[in-house]
Target: Lycopene cyclase family protein
Amino acid sequence: MLDADVAVVGAGAAGLSLAHRLSAPGSGGRRPTVALIDAPPGPLRPPRRTWCFWEPGDGAYEAAVTASWQRLSVHDHRGGTTSGCIAPLRYKMIRSEDFEALVARDLAERPGVRRIEAAVEEVRDVPGGAEVRGTTAEGSRVSVTARWVFDSRPLGRLPAARTTLLQHFRGWFVRTERPVFDPQVVRLMDFRTPQPPHGLSFGYVLPTGPHTALVEYTEFSSAPLTTEAYEAALRHYTEDVLRLGGLSVTGTETGVIPMTDAPFARRTGPAVFRIGAAGGATRPATGYTFAAVQRQTWAIAAACRAGRHPVPPPPHRARSRAMDSVLLRALDTGRVDGADFFARLFRRVPAERLLRFLDGRTRLHEDLAIGLHTPVLPMLRTVAELPLLPRRPFPGP
Model:
């Protein structure tokens, strides 16, 4: 049995970020001992993925950033283009393997951090804290007791919600024969894709050089597609819309992100907490998670090191969650055309302000001004309807 001040279950973005912040030198307060418990290689580990977020200047994980940009573009279904500068913000891309390698190097040099590979089967309360039980790849039993446990494992079932959509996507990492990409501009949403009967779809291009980019096809709808359908959509987008010409696909990524107004429990026992997407860090209306994870883990680490009760703070403001709930319901009912809604917002609101809004960093008067650029009557009808709607379990993808 191993004892630690803090046990962190899962070594994805949330688990690694929390362990990294708890063990950082010179952050004030007492550095707790940390046990970081990650699943052995296999199906319990999340696939490699790309995380995007925005922040001003250099951040804590700048060494892991693959590329960053200060210009964004949005393309409506008619081919009209809106582009804008987001300075002082930068839109950043981090690949999970680069983030993991950076954090792993730091953790290996810090005293008081123990990394354990085990499939966690139980997290239970015990006197004075909690216990994590699991099994290694070799079949050995592992037990870790800690004053506090932070669990970042994906939930087996989503909480009941009034509205749940899925943001599902497939991306190609491509290398083209011709220099077809502008490395200075992210194509954030390109609605020149066939729109599904329910929801919306768009293309997404993160250029890393004149010949290289991550090109994704994304849908907001109730269920994922087959691999064949994603591949057909990407072929259409790269060949018929972007007209990239000859290219090779050097890698792929696929993901499903729940977009839900469900309330997520951030505490499951006296000493057990959920963090990351399992603790509600995913922004319901956009699917972005990484920036909220950083805010959440910073607050937890500061509380732990100061000897305070480290209840994870809400990842998003109540006002932001309420607005997201309205938007999700309006999209799900078809009261607003999703492609037109987002294209119009980017056309009428400065890109830097809109990104701050999407990150929950705008003030009330800014939120109200942005709201006036949405279809007001359908949104007001949805606001009136929401309190009457029951929360229902989501059947799952």
